[in-house]
Amino acid sequence: MWEPNKYHIFQLNTWNIVIIYLVLGFLWILFSDRLLEQLIDDPATLTQFQTTKGWFYVLITALLLYILISRYISWITRMRSEYTEQFDLYRTLLEQGNQVVIQVDDNQRFSYTNAAVRDILGYEDAELKHMGDFEIIVHPDDMTRFHDLRMPYKMDNRDHDPVKKQVRLRHKNGTWRWYMMILTDKRSFEHIESRLLLVRDIHEETTLYEQLRVSQARFKHLFQEAPVGYHSLGSDLKFIDINNAELNMIGYERDEIIGKKSWADVIVPEDYPTFEKHKKELMKKGSVKNQMYTVVRKDGTRRSVILNGKAFFDDNGRLLYTFGNVLDLTEKLQAEKELNEAHSRLTYHIQNTPLGFVEWDAKMRVMEWSRQSEQMFGWKKEEVVGKLSDEWSLVYSEDAEYVMGRMEKMLEGKELRNVISNRNLTRNGDVRYCEWYNSALLDKNGNLVSVMSLVHDVTERVSAHQEIRKLNVLLEEKVRQRTRELELANKELESFAYSVSHDLRAPLRGIDGFSQVLLEKHASQLDDRGVNYLNRVRQASQRMGFLIDDILGLSRISRTEIKMEQVDLAALSREIITSLSEKEPERKVDFRSPDKLMVTGDASLLRVVMQNLLDNAWKYSSPRDLAVIEIGIHEYGGDMDTNGNITVFVRDNGVGFKMKYHDKLFMAFQRLHSQDEFPGTGIGLATVQRIVQRHSGTIRAESNENEDAVFFFNLPNKSVK
Amino acid sequence: MERHILLVEDNPDDVDLTIMALEKSNIFNKVKVARNGEEALHMLHDNRGEVPNGLPAVILLDLNMPKINGLEVLKEIRSNERTRRLPVVILTSSREEQDVIRGYDLGANSYIRKPVDFDNFVSAVRQLGMYWLVLNEPGG
Description:
The structure holds 2 protein chains of 2 kinds.
Chain A: H1 4-39, H2 43-96, E1 99-104, E2 110-113, H3 116-120, H4 125-131, H5 143-154, E3 163-170, E4 176-188, E5 191-201, H6 203-225, E6 229-234, E7 239-242, H7 244-250, H8 254-257, H9 272-285, E8 287-296, E9 302-313, E10 319-328, H10 330-352, E11 356-361, E12 366-369, H11 371-377, H12 381-384, H13 397-411, E13 417-425, E14 431-442, E15 448-457, H14 459-521, H15 528-559, E16 565-568, H16 569-583, E17 589-592, E18 598-601, H17 603-620, E19 627-634, E20 646-652, H18 684-694, E21 699-704, E22 708-715
Chain B: E1 5-8, H1 12-24, E2 31-34, H2 37-44, E3 58-61, H3 70-79, E4 88-92, H4 97-105, E5 110-113, H5 118-135
Parallel strand pairs in B: 1-2, 1-3, 3-4, 4-5
Helix pairs in contact in B: 1-5, 2-3
């Protein structure tokens, strides 16, 4: 290729060549003639040689001239052809290029504009030339920069560097677009011929760049502030970038990590083999997905994380860097674990409870059907799931309406839980009595999610109840029957007692009465023995009268109603003793009694008790010169009776009885003494015992024969309301 | 006219003993005897409601009788305008509380239980006769 300065060198040599030619020619003429004069003496020969030498010189010079001229012409031809080519190229570039080229002349006029003006700025060549300057289409905000651009050529700037400014110009179509304006000098041999203003449309790239800048900032923000951990590892797998979330996760400061630690430094040693495996996978496939790791925080605590990584390689397949995101799953895993445990516990309970478990959806279709439900009803889970309960006969038809009514309330949200007892049908048609414990599960908004039922098969219990009820009815019937019989017997007894008092006494009166009449009116016809016999008839009949009265009294005690009240036995006893001593004033009796002896019982019946016991005491102590009769409260070692009852005793120092007969004392008509010794009917103590028993008390007797006799009876210590 | 006693008693022994007891007590008023309740009511009223032989000074009434018992007789006596103020003494073997209460409720003037002992019986009849035939002033 031709270089411009070669041409310069050529120019300079022109004078050299001429001088060299002059010098050589002068030297040739001067020295060649002298040499010939030396060598040749003959003048003719000399003249001949001199002519030949002249021709020779002309010939040589002509040859040299030819070489020089032909070379120069050849160079000019080539130059011309090359310049033409270049000119065409530049012209094409100028006209077809994507930038506006404006030549500005010394008068600041646009002396040339290329065709791109129309495409890039939208203005016609003439319009632009008329405009003369861009100032009127420069965006006001960019005016300062535009002036900076013009400054150099105004100040006749000597700086050769082109000046570049980005300004917005108003396109012909009215929109503002970004342009790069470059002002450059056009020089020729150090002379500034003109200036060129180049205008390039950079709107797209500027916009793109701006967008890129914004999106980069956004990305940076996202990267830093995302709740997910992000990091980038270098080719040595050390951190080259890490975001805040991940720093929080692993508990380090950024400068403790960047360039200092690798991923292997923040995971537990147990994960090293996994890490090695993942490293290989990353190199081979370029990414790893959803890998579980346990990271160790700076403070030693552990977190469970999930890692996604992607690797970036250069053209030679060498690792440049990786990009990874890290999700902290510790809480989630913990919650999942707890949920799983809870779920498995619940499942265990549901499967193992003896109750049947059924879960229904909001339309009462079966969702769950436990093993026990299968056993209870005979239907397999897969046979019933998704079905409504009335699609297969689960509820006994007579109960269906009731059950549905109750369940609808629950589905409408009126009841959150209920218990329904109804009959169900098993697969083979057996009727089972079941208790359904139903509860509704609602979501946060109060919508029904599902209904859970626990089923208890109570058929056995129900039939047992029915059996018991049947037995109860039988029993009640039996009791009623017995009661009727008893009432009947009581009535019979009453009418018997009534008859006894009437019909048995009437003949006795006859016997006694007519015997008396005989004794009075017909005594003369009887001897002494006859009189005696008649008297014995009378005595016997009278005694029988007493017996009958006592029996009637005994039976009356069993029949009369007891009225509980406070009774002072001491006062009662004093009255009885007084009346006894009035009948037998000759007896010497020491009666000992507390001032008061309060008990609870029926006053008239207790009077009968004390009457009998004191009569006995009076009677059996009659052999004593000084009889001692004592009543009082018997104390057991200072305490009351364990049931809080009061035990009353009646003691006398009479003849007593043999202890071996003590159980006969209270039997009717049983007497331990003959009528001759002590008269009596043998009914008194039986009556006493009956009264005490009717007060829920007991009576017993103790005696040292011929020394004393003591009767103990206890009465409930109830206060009277 | 001498005031008589109406004895209503089904047991002939008791009739005799009662009469003997009255005699022994020196009460010699006429004793009319009705053997049962029906007869007693006949003797008190005829079919027209007239009293055939005048009203007794006192009626001694046994309770346990066939056909119409003593309490029914008493009720009838008290419900009849002419006899409702007659002194009626229940003289019976029964000492049942319900008989005593019912007797007084129906308007008996006295209730006496016949003792088995004849001496006691005589004593009771004497006092009874003295009171109702001598001391007591009859109602209209």
